[in-house]
Amino acid sequence: YCEETAASLWQELHAYILKDPLFLHSLTPHTPHFGAPPVALKMAAAAAKAGVGPMAAVAGAFAEEVAQHLLKKFKIQDIIVENGGDIYLATTHTRRIAIWAGASPLSGKLAIELEPAQSPLSLCTSSATVGPSLSLGKADAVTILAKNGAVADAYATAVGNQVRSAADIEPALAYADAQEDILGCVIIIGDRIGAIGEVRLSPL
Description:
This protein has 204 residues and is of the alpha+beta class. The chain is built from 6 helices and 9 strands; from the N terminus they run H-H-H-H-E-E-E-E-E-E-H-H-E-E-E. A hairpin with a 2-residue loop joins strand 1 and strand 2 (86-90). The mean pLDDT is 96.
């Protein structure tokens, strides 16, 4: 069912992109055409908030959509959907989510601890050094906590774009803290880390 849901979402989005190719390629906010599928509208709305292109929100949006479908169909309380480093979860007990930051010496050494009261929640990570996604910065990992999957993903890209050296950590965290939709932010570049908001880090 999980695969079917994800495939259906992608087929919908792919069919729309064929009619609106700028939705796929734009690196800045883009207004969808009339008749765009719901997931495209969510992506575009999140991207508009963060000032990035709609596809910056795709993985987080899909993780949330799949999770919501599963929660509704199977009437479950606990779920974790992971989509290439972007996570949507609902939980009834404490969870620890490890942060992978590529070649950084901090990679795989720290976890974000989440309490049930914080869920449902999305954690999305952007990286300039891990994976195929485009980042205009140089951060090894930028993880955003938000209630909305598309929003978390879009802001992970937006914050990641701002981090080109360790000196950028503080202003990037200040930017994240000023966004009402962001609950927490973790930035790792090289051997430096910064965090703000509803983030409790613990060693792995």
